């Protein structure tokens, strides 16, 4: 079957774009810090470089302007002459003085004198503005680097989901795993069924969301994810798959969105990993191969068999039938 449009890709990216915002787009500017963090890395680096470059050039021009208005550029800087900033002769020297002051380098060759009140005011303004710019941009870069999105890439989901019997009950199952030795604290899993439907009143819902029970009442949705786990949804009278059979599965059109959330043990930040399964990625009458084996004093996980399944005898009928 041809690949159809997904609501959520296998890598967790949501295929939703917001358009025709009109005047609502101004809301992005009201929360400019979050907007800046959400930008791609190339735009973040460009804004970072442009902001510092423009700020440096503007402030260096102000120091050069003070020296020009006072006539320091035309005067000979001898021992008897007191300039606003010592040893500032042109724009490059004014730029170097600004960088030395901003970076607190202080080579000692250029320095501000006490006979320049406008220079003292500009120095204070430069210190305050530099602190604000540093806090904003460096804070933005730090938050972007510490985002736990990359941690989600080491959380695995099986490529396909399976339907087979477990404990004499028909179940929908898929597998999750953690590739790192660091644990996910308070890991929890949720499933959403995305399917179009029409209400009795005639309203058409193109992407209706329905919750799939993966053990809310029993606590099975709270995961101790130190080894690959098989998540199970029991198909019963309360399940939206109550009327699903092997034959009707071929004509159905739905998408199962899986959301795994937890706290990264090393950073304490919340991480979310997502994937989805369409109807052609649900295998009827299959079961996952075991991946755990007992070695000398420890358990070994064979991830080469993580996605592997095998067929098992399964009735082709729905639970309702």
Automatic annotation (TrEMBL):
SUPFAM superfamilies, A to Z: E set domains, Voltage-gated potassium channels
Domain of life (superkingdom): Eukaryota
Transmembrane residue ranges: 45-66, 120-143
Domain Inward rectifier potassium channel C-terminal span(s) in chain numbering: 155-320
Matching InterPro entries: Ig_E-set, IRK_C, K_chnl_inward-rec_Kir, K_chnl_inward-rec_Kir3.1, K_chnl_inward-rec_Kir_cyto, Kir_TM
Site keyed Role in the control of polyamine-mediated channel gating and in the blocking by intracellular magnesium: positions: 134
Keyword entries, A-Z: Ion channel, Ion transport, Membrane, Potassium, Potassium transport, Transmembrane, Transmembrane helix, Transport, Voltage-gated channel
Topology term for the membrane: Multi-pass membrane protein
Protein name: G protein-activated inward rectifier potassium channel 1
Organism: Cardinalis cardinalis (Northern cardinal)
């Amino acid at each position: 079957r041809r690949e159809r449009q997904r609501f959520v890709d296998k890598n967790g990216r949501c295929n939703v774009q917001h358009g025709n915002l009109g005047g609502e787009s101004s809301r992005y500017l009201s929360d400019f810090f979050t907007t800046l963090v959400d930008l791609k890395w190339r735009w973040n680096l460009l804004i970072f470089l442009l902001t510092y470059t423009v700020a440096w050039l503007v402030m260096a021009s102000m120091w050069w302007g003070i020296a020009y208005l006072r006539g320091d550029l035309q005067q000979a800087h001898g021992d008897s002459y007191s300039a606003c900033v010592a040893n500032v002769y042109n724009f490059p020297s004014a730029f170097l003085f600004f960088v030395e002051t901003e970076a607190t380098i202080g080579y000692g060759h250029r320095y501000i004198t006490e006979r320049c009140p406008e220079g003292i005011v500009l120095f204070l303004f430069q210190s305050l503005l530099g602190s604000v710019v540093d806090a904003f941009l460096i804070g933005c870069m730090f938050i972007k680097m510490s985002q736990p999105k990359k941690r989600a890439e080491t959380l695995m989901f099986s490529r396909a989901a399976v339907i087979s019997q477990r404990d004499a009950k028909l179940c929908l199952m898929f597998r999750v795993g953690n590739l790192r030795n660091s644990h996910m604290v308070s890991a929890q899993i949720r499933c959403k069924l995305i399917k179009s439907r029409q209400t009795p009143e005639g309203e058409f819902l193109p992407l209706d969301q329905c919750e799939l029970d993966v053990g809310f009442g029993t606590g099975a949705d709270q995961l101790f994810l130190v080894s690959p786990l098989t998540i199970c949804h029991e198909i019963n009278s309360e399940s939206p798959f109550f009327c699903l059979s092997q034959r009707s599965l071929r004509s159905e059109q739905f998408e199962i969105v899986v959301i795994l959330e937890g706290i990264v043990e090393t950073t304490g930040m919340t991480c979310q990993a997502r994937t989805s399964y369409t109807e052609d990625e649900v295998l009827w009458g299959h079961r996952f191969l075991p991946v755990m084996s007992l070695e000398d004093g420890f358990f070994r996980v064979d991830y080469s068999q993580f996605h592997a399944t095998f067929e098992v005898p399964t009735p082709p009928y729905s639970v309702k039938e």
